Amino acid sequence: MSFAAEMAQVATDLLGEFDERPVGGKIQLKRNSAAVWDPTLVEDVITPGATIDLTGVAVPYSQGLVDGTTIQSGDIKLTVTMATEPLAQDKVILDGAEHSIISIVPFAFTGKPLTIAYAIQIRR
Questions:
Q1: What is the pLDDT averaged over residues 61-88?
Q2: pTM
Q3: Considering its fold, how many domains does the chain have in total?
Q4: How far apart are CA 14 and CA 17, in angstroms?
Q5: What is the Cα–Cα distance from 56 to 72, expressed in whole angstroms?
């Protein structure tokens, strides 16, 4: 197992162990269906939507970081591990409420294909 894969597993274990959300609360990534060009068929193919369970923690931004533009009051920072890279058009369902993704920062210390975790800013 590579170093990055081991660190991703450690991150997943720690984030799962220290999850303090109420019972029944969870974090999910909602990916809507999309049209993707298929050069073999020479047409757009509709990919199905998906809901992916995430392991991570959600914390509100401290008031000192809220600037009213980039970070607004009520924004939440997620730190999650996942095999699929999140996209800006995806939605995050946090404890049943849908949020939009504002920014995504990968923790890829050894290169993008070996991303350990993602910091995602979400807004309701």
A1: 90
A2: 0.76
A3: 1
A4: 5
A5: 21
